[in-house]
Amino acid sequence: MAKRVKALNERREQLKAGIVASTAKRRRNITNKNEVGDKVRSVLDSLKMVQGEQVVKAQKKLVQAGIRSKDLAFVVIFARLVLPLVIGTTVIVGVYLLNWFPDWGALKRYGLVASALVGSYKAPDLWLKNKINKRTAAIRKGLPDALDLLVICAEAGLTVDAAFSRVARELGKAYPELGDEFALTSIELGFLTDRRSAFENLANRIDLDAVRGVVTTMIQTEKYGTPLASALRVLAAEFRNERMMRAEEKAARLPAIMTVPLILFILPVLFVIILGPAACSISDTLIH
After folding, report:
1. pLDDT confidence tier of residue 38, bands split at 50, 70 and 90
2. Each residue of 205-226: b (16+ CB within 10 Å) or e?
3. How far is Cα 114 from Cα 17, in angstroms, rounded to an integer?
4. Is the pTM of this model over 0.85?
5. What sign does the CA torsion over 39, 40, 41, 42 have?
6. 153 and which of 18, 43, 158, 181 could share a cystine (Cβ 3.0–4.6 Å)?
């Protein structure tokens, strides 16, 4: 909770700096004072291995994973460069010079080296993808409840900013990821000059089609003045039906998934319990 509050306060201060300060001062204030990220950035700049598109893509993935620091994008890029060199060199030296696996043939050794190189290169991306998937699943789970609360707030007469802030407080304990995103959106709605940018930032931070649909609805209601509560009520019902369909799909797959554990673990125990006493009686009869 302390880390989440600190991240939101830092974002509020960044937005204040962006509104009050000049362009040059804004860049200095928004830049995160991350020493590790600065050192890695300087190394990559000296090697001339950083591309703008690559950095933007890594930053977007970090934000979707719930990591606010943009400087860590350079750490991810640096890890893609360093891990194959370190792990690949270690495996090559161990396999071919230190003879770790003397019984292995040339094909197996080559496969081990290739797997180590490819796996170490893909490791940062796999780690990021795993965090994004877990976070997206948690947000997807709490989105229908959040929309219901938004409908209640809209019908009570709250503004969009106040509605997002209230929903973020209510959902902070049950769905902390979604609460963080709604709180950050509430802050951006209060500070950014273009409210559309705040909604688009929400869609960019969450890799979920349902959130994009909510953002599109919010933008349309802001632009055309259509009733917000009715549109959100329809979206909430749709997302709840979708969640129920996913649960039914998992339940339908359960018999096929349980077949292998049933054969390997449950049936042998049943055979032992049922046939064990009979086998013991037969053995005692034959012995006597």
Report:
1. low
2. bbbbebbbebbebbeebeeeee
3. 48
4. no
5. positive
6. 158
